[in-house]
Amino acid sequence: MTQKEKNNIEKPVEKEKENNTNYEKENEIINYKCKGCGVFPIVGIRYRCTVCNEFDYCEKCEEENGSKHDHPFIKYRKPNIKGKNEYFWGHFLSFDDNIFAYEFINKENCHMSMGKIFSKKNKDSIKYYNNELRFIQSLNHPGIITFEKSFEDSQKNYILFENCTNGNFIELLNHRKKLTEFEVKYYVLEIIEVLKYLKSNKIIHRNIKLDNLYISDKMKIKLCGFYYAIKLESDDKVKIRCETSLYTAPELINFKKGYSYEVDIWSLYRYYYIQTAHR
């Protein structure tokens, strides 16, 4: 074998090693230390404060100290090594405020999920991830998308939800062009039931739009996109800025005057208008 032939064999091997090294760096699992008992690393489930976002508890310390803390905790489950490598990435679904949504397909059982990807390099994206995870884990309603699991690597956070085989209303309108009056009324009533449930839990969604309204295989509404949601601690009006393009209620623009649950009703009206205007 000539020297040239040897070099041609060595180069692909070296390139493969380099690619594997880069992959491991990209998907390395970050370890965390428990503030309570000091155990390192926290194995399995860990808890992090949604507001402070500066320390972590193991499961035992969260049970002992969690109720004494002023803010709620989010539960994280540590993924297997190379967590996201458990899945194939499928079709691109949507993009909103640096949040990407893709189909995720489990390599072992071919189970399909909808996955949202949040960058760790963007402060807003980290805040959106914590907010989405906080609400989606605590809510239980047939009109709200079901949480499946969350995991992370060194660069991104991931949340997996049930897969809605019929897509969202943007896809539906692109395919159908228009809905019948009966269909529009049917879905409006379903959204109203979800809003009633959110109000009973003192939650304002603040991001109801066609992109966040998915349709299950049984043609039922599934609301997602809770990264802008806020929970009211009292009956006082909220005075925090939050804009979501065409669906923004006037109260959200003039947020200094305060707003409440009515902003979600405005978004519902916009949904109804867009659906009927497609005729």
Q: Notable features of this structure?
A:
22% strand, 34% helix, 12 strands, 279 residues, three-stranded antiparallel β-sheet, single chain, alpha+beta, five-stranded antiparallel β-sheet
Q: How does the overall form come out from the CA principal axes? A: globular
Unreliable residue stretches: 9-29, 79-83
Which structural class do the helices and strands define? alpha+beta
Q: Please work out how many helical segments DSSP would assign.
A: 7
In sequence order, what are the helices and strands, one letter per element?
HEEHEEEEHEEHHEEEEHH
Rg result: 22 Å
Strand order of the largest sheet: 4-5-6-8-7
What is the strand tally?
12
First-to-last CA distance: 73 Å
What is the average per-residue confidence, as pLDDT, rounded to a whole number? Answer: 77
The percentage of residues in β strands lies in 15-25%
Largest sheet: 5 strands, antiparallel
Helicity range: 25-40%
Question: Layout of helices and strands, plus pairs?
Answer:
Layout: H1 3-26, E1 45-49, E2 56-58, H2 59-65, E3 73-77, E4 87-96, E5 99-106, E6 112-119, H3 123-138, E7 147-152, E8 156-162, H4 169-176, H5 181-200, E9 203-204, E10 213-215, E11 221-223, E12 230-231, H6 250-253, H7 262-277
Antiparallel strand pairs: 1-2, 1-3, 4-5, 5-6, 6-8, 7-8, 9-12, 10-11
Helix pairs in contact: 5-7
How would you explain this protein's 3D organization?
The chain is an alpha+beta fold. 34% of the residues lie in helices and 22% in strands. It has 7 helices and 12 strands. It has helices spanning 3-26, 59-65, 123-138, 169-176, 181-200, 250-253, 262-277; strands at 45-49, 56-58, 73-77, 87-96, 99-106, 112-119, 147-152, 156-162, 203-204, 213-215, 221-223, 230-231. The strands form 4 sheets. Strands 4-5-6-8-7 form a 5-stranded antiparallel sheet, covered by helices on one side. Strands 2-1-3 form a 3-stranded antiparallel sheet. Strands 9-12 form a two-stranded antiparallel ribbon. Strand 4 (87-96) and strand 5 form a beta hairpin. Helix 5 (181-200) runs antiparallel to helix 7 (262-277). The model is unreliable at 9-29 and 79-83 (pLDDT under 50).
